[in-house]
Amino acid sequence: MAIAQEILQISNWQPEEKHLQQFQQLYTQIILKNKSSNLTGITEPQDFLEKHIWDAIAGISPLEILGKEGEMKTAIDIGTGGGFPGIPIAIACPNYQITLLDSVRKKMLLLDEIITALNLQNVKTLIGRAEEIGQDISQRESYDLVSIRAVASPSVCAEYALPLLKIGGIAILYRGQWQEEETENLTPVVTKLGGQIKSIASFQTPLTNSIRHCIYLEKKVPTLPQYPRRVGIPTKHPL
Ligand code: SAM
Q: Which of 103, 132, 164, 230 to mutate to test ligand 1, by most ligand atoms within 8 A of the CB atom?
């Protein structure tokens, strides 16, 4: 746990003992559930710490929402898989009510059991496709924060994420390597969806010194009603 505490000291946030215990419990639960379903391929303790916990927390660190309490805000983690980065964000940001979205029912039922085992009051699951949830009036433009990691190409992620954001909300695209050319390609797509690229942060992971980037999109105006397009169209014909 001492190693974990050192590794997870990110910018102005210091994990407390209770956070470390919850991360440990999360690891135990994921390994347990992984026996019956492939929630994640990252199962070595140090890998889990760096690639799931550290990574999730690093991505939100520039937003200065870590550890804040008070007025509740809403977030959705699109294509959450085994709950990443959504569950670590929920643990570190108690004033965010986080919805974990994935189209695979079996994974979401296992996440429900993990949420109960960890007694996480600010997390719930939602089974569905991002293309349909983005057109659901009860969900559309209702989130302050969207996170999306390892789901699709940047422009597809933008098409999934921006319709779900409130005006002024932020989407974080968690990426690995990132080239200037990708920013040039993504910029007109984000504009078309009612947003703009607010900033790009690069991080070096603490154990394997790998490079990560997070792309922060800000919602500026309502997204046109035709976005997101029908299921499968964004990946088949990216904007
Ligand atoms: N975000 C997790 C992570 O970084 O560990 C899981 C990434 S996994 C490679 C991609 C996940 O996205 C899968 O669980 C898949 O079911 C989900 N997914 C892909 N496209 C989706 C869509 N259009 N709507 C909802 N979930 C989707």
A: 103
Name the CATH superfamily, with its identifier, for domain 3-236.
Answer: Vaccinia Virus protein VP39 (3.40.50.150)
- The ranges assigned to domains in the chain are 3-236
Q: Is the pLDDT of residue 9 over 60?
A: yes
209-238: pLDDT as tens digits: 999 999 999 999 999 999 999 999 999 999
Q: Concatenated DSSP letters for 147-158?
A: EEESSS-HHHHH
Whose alpha carbon is nearest atom 11 of ligand 1? 79
Altogether, the residues listed in the chain come to a count of: 239
**Tell me, what amino acid is at 125?**
T
Instruction: Name residue 10's beta-bridge partners.
Output: 13
